[in-house]
Amino acid sequence: MNTLSTWSLLVLTFPTENATARMRAWRALKAKGCAVLRDGIYLLPHTDEREDMLRELAVSIDEAGGTAHLLRAQSMNPSQEADFRALFDRNDDYGTFIASLGAVRKTLGGQPPAEVTRLLRRLRKDYDAIRTIDYFPGAASTDAEVAWEDFVALADTVVSPGEPHAAERAIRPLQRDEYQARTWATRQRLWVDRVASAWLIRRFIDPKARFLWLNSPEACPPDALGFDFDGALFTHVGERVTFEVLVASFGLDDDAALLRLGAMVHALDVGGASVPEATGFEAVMAGARQRASDDDQLLDEMGRVLDSIYAHFATAKRNGNGEDRS
User: Fold this and answer.
1) Collapsing DSSP states into helix, strand and coil, what is residue 202?
2) Which residues pair with 71 in a beta bridge?
3) Separation between Cα atoms, residue 54 and residue 44, nearest integer Å
4) I need a surface site. Which of 165, 194, 259, 279 has the fewest CB within 10 A?
């Protein structure tokens, strides 16, 4: 190992009686993945951002009646470098995470989609927490990434059987007047992206649209406009989900409320940064899916929900601060 790292060290002490402040500091250090050299001495690989975090913590320790000193040092030799790096070994954490994925896989098929989505969110949070403090990723990190991707793919088949793979192609601009009173087709048992896309089609693209809910993509009639399945005219492209592809295709991306709706749909369908309304929409969607007798009824019910969320986003945009003042 030829490169010697620079390290940030936090040396702290607390009065014996101040157990609460000591515990608060310990939790903050643990969350950042600090290694313990000995009691009261904590170590992190140096970056300006991490050092700023330790500096803020040092100030809070001083304010709580303790003492804290922030130092910076470089490994003295390759042997010490190896010893320090070993303190940040996340193999056990990744092993525990992979084992938890294996345990959940055994029961995944019997879970309702909303519960699978909640599990995915919780497990993604656990996975991200490990990766955030994995300062020297190695083979265990790669193994965990493969296991996570396999798990997500399996979960997708439960939440939304036939979930499309992202196509790599250009999104062509289309004229709405050429897509009127058409038949549109997607997979039955609507979930977030499909129901939002169908709402978008009827609300902004083709008000007289007729929908077919397919048992399988192979059942799509040749004259129907397919969406949200592999081989469909409108489906995932690159990083965009079907809703976002439709917005871009029909020149609707100058509507900030639709873009925010797209961010919500994207987060619920494939993950990523969300909006506060996403969790509530997902819960309503799961409940409506259980109650609806068919996908036409489900689209009618969720269409009203999407109308309301769209109106909220549009009003918040007009107010200029993301909040509805009406």
Assistant:
1) helix
2) 9
3) 9
4) 165
Which residues are within 8 A (CB) of 325 and not within 5 positions of it... i.e. 6 or more apart? 315, 319
In 3D, which of 58, 65, 20, 64 has the Cα closest to residue 42?
Answer: 58
Which residue would you say has higher pLDDT here, 23 or 317?
A: 23
42 with 10: CB under 8 angstroms? yes
Euclidean distance between CA atoms 297 and 287, whole angstroms: 13
Q: Reading across the β-sheet that carries 210-214, which strands appear in turn?
A: 210-214, 183-187, 225-226
Closest C-alpha among 42, 24, 115 to residue 84: 42
Spatial contact of 225 and 184, defined as CB atoms under 8 Å apart: yes
Q: Phi/psi of residue 90, each to 5°? A: -105, 15
Alpha-carbon span 39 to 65, nearest angstrom: 18
> Do the beta carbons of residue 235 and residue 242 sit within 8 Å?
yes
The pLDDT of residue 161 is above 70: no
- 257: number of Cβ within 10 Å: 17
